[in-house]
Amino acid sequence: MFVVFILEFSFMCNMIMAKDFAVQLNVTTSAVCVCSLRLCLVKCEVFLLFCTEHGAEDITILKDGLAFLSTGLKYPGLPSFSDEPGKLYLLDLLHPRPSPLELQIEGKLDLSSFNPHGISVYINETDESVYLFVVNHPQHKSQVEIFRLDEEDTLVHLKTITHPLLHSVNDIVAVGVESFYATNDHAFPSDVLHFLTILLGLPWCDVVYYSPEEVKVAASGFLSANGINISPDKRYIYVSDIVDHEIDVLERQEDKELVYIKSVAVGSLCDNIEVDHRTGDLWMGCHPNPIKMYMFDPEDPPGSEVIQIKNIHSGQPVVSQKYVDDGHVIMASSVAAPYEGKLLVGSVFHKALCCDLK
Question: Of all helices (H) and strands (E), which one includes residue 241?
Fold first, then answer.
């Protein structure tokens, strides 16, 4: 009961703040007719394929149009509609009728407890090998798996990474064949202590840098560090401080630490961050009413929202709402990944959309 009370109180405060921000930006909230919102924002076609019926919590797209999807996340406190372990999929957006292809996994990884969360791709410039980094929560632990894309439909498991600093990993951005930055979304393993830190406004979460030679806290001071990604020129790291309704911009240093530059208010609880490789624009899948995820009611489902940030390094970044739904099309959107006029929107536990951008 105590945890539920904290959830209700903190997330109700967040919802009120998000609605206030929406009024300031003159954008429409999910209470307004969904049809009119879609007409003025983006046109979406729903993927009703088996692989996305249990969520596509994170999605990332390569420059050649290949999209990786992380599906089947089971997260404490959130609904799950399948007992099957999680899976990874590949989607070719250059195909006229793209269809998700399940990736076969080779190696010693225990697939029966595979529980994928955030993902990131690194391409080795030497031989153009593709490496997929996956946050995995077997038995609700935190570890990072590194795979190499060996053939069109096969991932070879190379390594499992665990470390005391990687205690509550949410998302990851790869910066080398075996190196990455990762977000911790909890300061403590106890949910009660975690929500107390949120309730009291204690920014005790962090971003960790990992390499085989060095592991360190690269940045701290987050209420709950969630999505993470990197600028096209590799100079900046973007972090979603989800409870604080902000995207933080940090600059990479030679010693692998991250120096805080600025924060951009987004007025919603933004989950994963994807970056348009052509424009540098940030796209986020967001939770406009997150309490509905934890107190799930299929008759009153959690809504979805997509937010875009243009010119984030300028003095006046442009924050705009690109899609919103009351949960009857897609529940609990967690990622929005753009590619050549299309937008993939994934969700924590529901389905995925393929959208045509106007």
Answer: strand 236-241
| Residue 57 labelled as part of a binding site | yes
> Which 3 state secondary structure label does DSSP give 301?
coil
Helix 191-199 vs helix 2-25: crossing angle, to nearest 10: 40
Cβ atoms within 10 A of the Cβ of 143, count? 16
Is 115 annotated in a binding site? The answer is: no
Q: For residues 135 and 72, give the distance between their C-alpha atoms in angstroms, rounded to a whole number.
A: 13
Q: What pLDDT score does 38 carry?
A: 34
Domain boundaries, the chain: 2-356
CATH superfamily of 2-356: TolB, C-terminal domain (2.120.10.30)
Point out the residues that are catalytic. 117
Maximum pairwise Cα distance, the chain: 55
Q: Helices H, strands E: what count in the chain?
A: 4, 25
Q: Are 87 and 51 spatial neighbours (Cβ–Cβ below 8 Å)? A: yes
Query: Quick one: how far is CA 353 from the chain centroid?
Result: 15
Q: To 10 degrees, the CA torsion angle through 261, 267, 269, 271?
A: -50
Question: Residue written as tokens 């406190």?
Answer: 77
How many angstroms separate the first and last alpha carbons of the chain?
46
Q: Is the pTM of this model over 0.85?
A: yes
**pLDDT, tens digit, for every residue of 21-47?**
333 333 332 222 222 233 335 665 555
Total residues found in the chain within this entry: 358
Residue 168: which residues within 8 A CB-CB, separation 6 or more?
142, 184, 185, 186, 187, 189, 205
Q: Is 83 annotated as a binding residue?
A: no
- DSSP letter at 242? G
Q: What is the rounded CA–CA span in Å between residue 174 and residue 179?
A: 6
- 271 known ligand binder: yes
